[in-house]
Every structure is written in structure tokens, then in C-alpha cells.
Amino acid sequence: MALSEEELRTLEQMERALTEEDPKFVSTLRGTSLRRAARRRAIVAGVVFTLGIVVLMVGAVSKFWVLGIVGFVVMLGSATVGLNALRGQSAAGREPVVPHGEQPHGGFTLIQGGRRGRAGRNRARSSGGFMERLEERWRRRREENGGF
Where does the chain cross the membrane (predicted)? Predict the structure, then answer.
């Protein structure tokens, strides 16, 4: 059941008041369960990766190559899951970047303090697309090497 405009405004006011009153409590509630689940997935993936190494080595030693391939696939899958879990864990600790003045679904805003200047410098330095930069490098190398 959708909330009315008045209920949404009241809820946003309550969230703002809670944030102003106890910001430590609000920061504790944000992302705690997501981080815990991501950490658990990363640990399980590490254990499965270790088991994959054992299976791979047993397959290599016993010259049963199918077992070695299975071990490698298990290692590859668990490494993928573990890296995604670690990425999710670091993303759970961060707030979504929202332009100034807009609010995400939860009603909380994030103000980027001091980051805009650095990002602007990086964009100015890396103006142009990837292919343009590669072509420029190629031209410089050809000029430096006498046409080769």
C-alpha cells in the first residue's frame, strides 16, 4: 500500500529529526546487515577456494585430470563470489552519491565535501575518449622513433 504525500513528508521529517538528534545511531543502522552478509560470503568463498586448491592438487597428483579441472572451476567460482562479496562489503559502507538537493529513496542526503575539485582535475587531464588517447600515444611514439 503506497503512502500519501503527507505521510511521506511526515516520514522524511522524522528521519531528518532522528539524523540530527543521533547521527551515530543512524550510521550504526545503515548497512550493518549488508556488511555482515558480505563478510560471511567472503569467508565461505575463501574456504571453498581452499577446498578447490585441494581438489586441484589431488587431481594433479593422481593424474585424474577431470578432478583437476573440477578443482580449478571451483576455485574460479569461489574467487568470483569472494571478490563480489568484498566489493559489496565496501559498497555497503558507503552512501550512494546523490546530486546536491536531491534525495534518495530513504530521504537521507549526502554532501560530497572537497571531492569535486579532484574529480574535475582528473576529467580535465583525461579529456577525450579512450581511443583518442591511444591514437595520441601512437603518434608520439612514431614521432620519437623516426616514423617506425
Answer: 42-59, 65-86
User: Which cell numbers hold the place of 76?
Assistant: 574460479
> Domain for residue 44, yes or no?
yes
Cβ(48)–Cβ(78) under 8 Å? yes
**Same-domain pairing of 40 and 68:** yes
Total structural domains in the chain? 2
Rounded Cα distance between 77 and 48, Å, is: 9
**Cα–Cα nearest to 46, from 74, 88, 68:** 74
C-alpha 145/C-alpha 35 separation (Å) is: 52
Find the length of the chain. 148
Q: What is the pTM of this model?
A: 0.44
Residue 54 lies in a domain: yes
Q: Write out pLDDT tens, residues 40-81.
A: 899 999 999 999 999 999 999 998 899 999 999 999 999 999
Q: Residue 77: enclosing H or E segment and its boundaries?
A: helix 65-93
Range of the domain at 141: 113-148
